[in-house]
Design goal:
The structure is a single chain. By secondary structure, the chain is α+β, with helices and mostly antiparallel strands. It contains seven helices and twelve strands. It has a five-stranded mixed barrel with strand order 1-2-9-5-4. It has a three-stranded antiparallel β-sheet with strand order 6-8-7. The longest helix is centred in the last third of the chain and has 14 residues.
Amino acid sequence: MIADLAPTIDRRYAQFHAGAISVCQRGIMLPGPRRCGKSVLTLGLLLKGGLYLSEDVAVLEHRSLRLMPYGEGVSLRRDAIALFPEVMGLLSGIPADEEDDPYQQVAFTSPDRLGIGISGPCRVGMIVFPTFAARAPASELMPLSAGQAVLRLLENGISLGEDIDVDRGLDVVIALAKKADSYSLIYGDARDASETIMQRINAG
């Protein structure tokens, strides 16, 4: 069950532009800007056995550094739908805001429809920063230092929370980067990228 975090989300939690799933109680964050593929990679990892945490906004509790389940499901662009034919009958349409926007999200599905479980709160074990490159020959995960991860998390931060000052908020991000394994991902095929990420997760 996804808890209602709305009354306290701006105070007790840090928020990042990121998808998130869990595998064996290990949280995986996918931070990145719009159009980097957060949603399609989240769906790909869910279809490979992950549990749902969030699609677009990852929520992290300050004190425990645990990811919290947040959101309702996964929204997809038109070009992403064809990558996952197995979910075609499980999608609902989203009215288009701009007919000529190729990046418009046009379909939605939920964990319930997919038959996928929702994760409980869990600590972050891996952070993957995806970059889509259409001509990438194969998906490649490249390790990042904790310092590099801090900078990229801050780039994708929405809010560090009103209950803490800037220094404490930075401490939270640094602690997260030190505890998790961080990678940069260059990919051109979302299914291949999801498999690459899952292989790294299973390798421990």
